[in-house]
Amino acid sequence: MAMELKMTGLTSFMNEDELKYMNPLVQTCNKMLLEKSAQGNDFLGWVNLPVDYDKEEFARIQEAAKKIQKTCDVLVVIGIGGSYLGARAAIEFCLGQMYNSVRPEGIPEVYFLGNNISSGALNDIIKIIGDRDFCINVISKSGRTTEPAIAFRIFKDMCEKKYGKEGAKDRIFATTDKARGALKELANAEGYETFVVPDDVGGRFSVLSAVGLLPIAAAGIDIAEMMRGAAEAREAFTDGTTLDNDCFRYAAIRNILYRKGKGTEILVNYDPALVMFGEWYKQLFAESEGKDLKGIFPVSAAFSTDLHSIGQFIQDGTRNLFETVVWVKEQRSDVTIGHMDGDLDGLNYLEGKTMQFVNSKAYAGTLLAHVDGGAPNVLIEVDKADAYHFGYLCYFFEKACGLSGYLLGVNPFNQPGVESYKKNMFALLGKPGFEEEKKILEARMNG
Ligand SMILES: O=P(O)(O)OC[C@H]1O[C@](O)(CO)[C@@H](O)[C@@H]1O
């Protein structure tokens, strides 16, 4: 079994009957997803993506990844939201946070840009690249998202100055809409190799499409294994008549806890390699569920680091939260604790034990303490952090998210709320067409 959901941290907060009552609702929501019979049904391509994907494009992704590895020292990945979080989460999940420093020979450094508007962050990457060779993977369905569009304008220019227009064309890979949009038009005009953001897959569900797969493959990760993991999860979580299916059970648990006033979910990890996985999860659930004045607020935490900061609140603060802990059983590599003469740090009782052993006791001890403090804990135990398990876990959360949205009575596949800040920003920047709004907003800012 690739992963297992454990009820240990939930038994004092709900009983099996409550879960049974949820079963018919979850089954109905599953039908809505499988039969594409409900809101957002134009965006359900992710449901079968692990088996129903463009095999010819998949082979092209693998080829492009090899070409990137051969021709550059640095790959710059430009995108925001669903157009970057999945790839970065996968790379860090499989290779760790320091992947750029510990990568093997022949693998480029990979930096993610265009996911903020910080000139400092952008200039740092330019400095890091220095005189070295680089390639660009620009990822944007629309091609008009402000953050990646600014970064791409700057890096396209840099690339053309360094390699000439012809040379740059071979170093820029565009992942975008198959037919429309500003980036597609530009890619056609300039002759970039393009990859497709499928029409029926929203950004936050797109990691297993070219959006995630090209940067992941370029980082040296086996994307075929990743798809295999996702395909096995799809198989395991396609249907079921009871909540024995972990994915259905998780969706039911979330809904039960939400109805009991637990409006915040903290996705907890015990390894910095999973921090970006937490960021990916946040977009997935926040854009899917947080609407119509409803939804569980998704946040993430890295333990034991955050036990020394927000741990106090989780143990003892407002009782409106629950935790979902992703515990990875096997570490990428382990360390054994040695002996110290005089035992000044008091750690000799751990001599000969591994750090992962200590971490596992921190996990168990925290679980019991937080449950005693009134914070329900969903436990998701994963065997390993590799490509297969990333694919598996990713599909588990995507499917649970679709089910959760329908259980909540919202359309999980739109994100109308994201437009509000953009409209204001465009108006304040003086974008043509926003003249009236500009006056109104400036008066509000000044008054
Ligand atoms: O790929 P695009 O069009 O640049 O959009 C990027 C992101 O912006 C959003 O549309 C809004 O946050 C996300 O859903 C998407 O992942």
TrEMBL record:
User: Annotated Gene Ontology MF terms?
Assistant: carbohydrate derivative binding; glucose-6-phosphate isomerase activity; monosaccharide binding
Question: What compartments host this protein?
Answer: Cytoplasm
| GO terms under cellular component | cytosol
Question: Pfam families from the xrefs?
Answer: PGI (PF00342)
State the InterPro entries in the record.
G6P_Isomerase, Phosphoglucose_isomerase_CS, SIS_dom_sf, SIS_PGI_1, SIS_PGI_2
Catalytic activity annotation = alpha-D-glucose 6-phosphate = beta-D-fructose 6-phosphate
Swiss-Prot/TrEMBL keywords: Cytoplasm, Gluconeogenesis, Glycolysis, Isomerase
Pathway listed for it is:
Carbohydrate degradation; glycolysis; D-glyceraldehyde 3-phosphate and glycerone phosphate from D-glucose: step 2/4; Carbohydrate biosynthesis; gluconeogenesis
Q: What is its EC number?
A: 5.3.1.9
The entry assigns this protein to a family as follows: Belongs to the GPI family.
Q: What is this protein called?
A: Glucose-6-phosphate isomerase
Please give the organism.
Butyricicoccus porcorum
